[in-house]
Amino acid sequence: MRSKSAMVRLSATLERCFGVERAVLVGRAARGLLAVLRIWRGSRPKCRVAISGAICQEVLLAVLVAGCEPVFCDVDAADGLVPDSEWARARILGADVAIVAHLYGNPAQTAGIRSIFPKSDCLVVDDAAQALGSHTEDGLCGSLGDIGLLSFGRSKQISIGNGAILVRDLELAAKIEADLSMIVGRCGQSKSDLQRTFRAKLDSARQQLIATEVPDAGGFAGLLDGMDWMLDVPFDAALSEGVLSALEHYQEDSLARVAKARMWRDCLEGTGLVAVGMGSGCVPWRYVCRFPGIGWNLQTLIAEAIRKRGIHVSTWYLPANWFVGQSVGTLPGVECLSREVFQFWLDGDATQESIAVSAEVIRRELAQLAVLGKYS
């Protein structure tokens, strides 16, 4: 009963904060996206979805499982966001859904994208899974489309578990809730076995890329086939109280994230690492920067050297269009960001002092590799 009460209060809190009619609670944001796309796809002979090539693979998986065709958009490597010209290109190619991802917390101008994908014919999904609290002059990320996506999953700004789908239309919300009650994937193997198999194939393709510096999209093509089970994550009502509590303190936490990101930027000045966005209105998921001009091999050497010193760093994402077999070079901005990006943690364990120490360690490792400031 207590969990049920917390669920009701959590939904009401999100509805009030984001100004929507209904906040549908889900086990994973990508599972809610799948429900939305299946409903949209159901009344149409076909559905094309405009999506960034720099995106979490689970978002792409939801598009594919829904029976939709992705139309990949390139990004500006300076902030990881899709420029209007790419959204317009996707619309000309027949896309009637736009998934606007505020990558790394950098706020995209969803209102402008709405003008390219008009409400009368199109669906705009405002994906704030990495951007809780980020905003533009038009409002909070997640609140500016027909549908909003929020994630409270592992490593996000609130990393307790579950997610939410923000819906403006109550009839659509009811259809989403009905779809969520359906089983997504059925398989004979355990999820852990499938996960290990997938990771092994993905790591093999990545190692080939790193070793040769010659991207081969064929190594990644088809890796998401039969991976429906990745979206089959049930909602855990017991986590609702924790998410509510985290939201109550989130204003303070979001300001701390912004301050930590600025600390990373200032401490890394002169190293050659430059911020990817992280500007006005951004509540960063992680501090994200890039080393302009490097390749996949050097990126890996740098990341491994940093990790050996006990510093968390990530170099995701791989170009999403490779997973469906699109040729290398199709999205040059996405590929540039993919081989140059570094992400550093901003969670509670990161302090101003630890960031300063970590940045100095990174500076020494870059000097050891003879790349300190080389590409700046």
What does the secondary structure layout of this molecule look like, with pairings?
Layout: H1 2-18, E1 22-26, H2 29-42, E2 48-52, H3 57-65, E3 69-73, H4 84-92, E4 97-101, H5 110-116, E5 123-127, E6 135-136, E7 139-140, E8 147-151, E9 163-167, H6 170-180, H7 191-212, H8 240-248, H9 250-267, E10 274-275, E11 287-290, H10 296-308, E12 313-314, H11 332-340, E13 341-344, H12 352-368
Parallel strand pairs: 2-3, 2-4, 4-5, 5-8
Antiparallel strand pairs: 1-9, 6-7, 8-9, 10-11, 11-13, 12-13
Helix pairs in contact: 1-8, 2-3, 2-6, 7-10, 9-12
Distance between the termini: 57 Å
Name the CATH homologous superfamily of the domain at 2-186: Type I PLP-dependent aspartate aminotransferase-like (Major domain)
Q: Rg from C-alpha positions?
A: 20 Å
What is the beta-strand fraction?
A: 5-15%
> The CATH topology of the domain at 2-186, please?
Aspartate Aminotransferase, domain 2
Quaternary status: single chain
Please give the CATH architecture of the domain at 2-186.
3-Layer(aba) Sandwich
Mind telling me the CATH class of the domain at 2-186?
Alpha Beta
Q: What class, by secondary structure content?
A: alpha/beta
The helix tally amounts to 12
State the low-pLDDT regions, or none: none
Number of distinct beta strands? 13
